[in-house]
């Protein structure tokens, strides 16, 4: 699976990065970066949790 971010919705609060830090990262300018490509199998449950917890519903599983 893959995950995408709607940057029009994301408010860069870092909740996803707290849940799945290997996949989501906030840089020094509060810009969210997402690991490219397929989510590693051992990261899938954390990514799904991040999608569920995003308060802006900015994350989508593909
Ligand atoms: S949890 Fe949602 S709003 Fe917060 S940084 Fe991640 S994608 Fe953006």
TrEMBL record:
Lineage of producing organism: Bacteria, Bacillati, Actinomycetota, Actinomycetes, Mycobacteriales
Cited InterPro entries: 3Fe4S_ferredoxin, Fe-S_cluster_ET
Main function: Ferredoxins are iron-sulfur proteins that transfer electrons in a wide variety of metabolic reactions.
Keyword Coiled coil: no
Protein name (record): Ferredoxin
Molecular function per GO: 3 iron, 4 sulfur cluster binding; electron transfer activity; iron ion binding
Pfam families noted in UniProt: Fer4_15
Organism: Nocardia jinanensis
Keywords: 3Fe-4S, Electron transport, Iron, Iron-sulfur, Metal-binding, Transport
Cofactor: [3Fe-4S] cluster
Organism domain of life: Bacteria
